[in-house]
Structures are given as C-alpha cells and as structure tokens.
Amino acid sequence: MTTTTTPAATTTGGWVDPRTEIEAGVLLADGRLVGRKFASRAEAEAFARPEDGEQVVEYNLVCECAV
C-alpha cells in the first residue's frame, strides 16, 4: 500500500491571518456567485454586467463574512 503526503503550505512572509484574506467575486442577479476566481476586484468589475443586475462582492472564505 502506497501513501502520499502533501507538504505543508509555506509562505515567504510568514504567517498570514486568514481573516484578512479577502476574495472578490461576482454575484449574479439570481443570488448565486459566479463559479470562477478573480485575481483582483478590478478583474471582477471588468467581468460583471451591472446592467443585468450583477454586482461585485468581497468575502472571506474562512469566516464567510461580508466586507
């Protein structure tokens, strides 16, 4: 039986508080989030179509709290 292990994640700047890791997304008019990641809020804004009721939102995946 073979087992594999995943190495622990490392960051170059040391520990990062996960509560400060904010994601940008696009909320569709029907209340669902678009199923893709955006590199920045500007990228999400370029993707969103406000004329169709879409809005750019920011959220934290760890605590799922709105910002």
TrEMBL record:
Highest classification ranks of the organism: Bacteria, Bacillati, Actinomycetota, Actinomycetes, Micrococcales
Domain of life: Bacteria
Name assigned to this protein: Uncharacterized protein
